[in-house]
Specification:
The protein has 98 residues and is mainly α. The protein has one domain. The chain has five helices and no strands. It has helices at 2-23, 37-46, 49-55, 58-80, 82-90. Helix 1 runs antiparallel to helix 4 and helix 2 runs antiparallel to helix 3. The protein is elongated. The chain starts with a helix and ends in an 8-residue tail after the last helix. The mean pLDDT is 88.
Length: 98
């Protein structure tokens, strides 16, 4: 039972993180991406304002969105191979899927 819950929690984590990483750089619901408090603080303390401009660029936003898509892909792969993942966590050899 613990193995099943572990896989279910992992799938849930991947789904939620994937959706967040896809939406956060582009949507203002989570706050402005380029005006993150920690980012502004780091660029002020280090004296590198280029850091804030780099993180605000569309290239970095696209990279973060790509990581979100990768997380969703991992979640759907785990959903399809749920029984195999549970068997591996239980230490049993996985049954071949038909």
């Amino acid at each position: 039972m613990v193995e099943r819950l572990t896989v279910i929690f992992f799938i849930t984590l991947c789904l939620l993180l994937g959706v967040y990483l896809i939406l956060a750089p582009w949507d203002t619901m989570f706050g402005l991406w380029s005006e993150n408090y920690l980012l502004v603080y780091l660029s002020d303390v280090t004296g590198y304002p280029v850091l804030q401009r780099t993180v605000a660029s569309n290239w970095v936003r696209g990279g973060v969105t790509g990581l979100g898509v990768l997380n969703l892909f991992i979640a759907f792969w785990e959903i399809v191979h749920f029984r195999q993942s549970v068997a591996l966590l239980q230490g049993k050899p996985p049954k071949p899927e038909n």
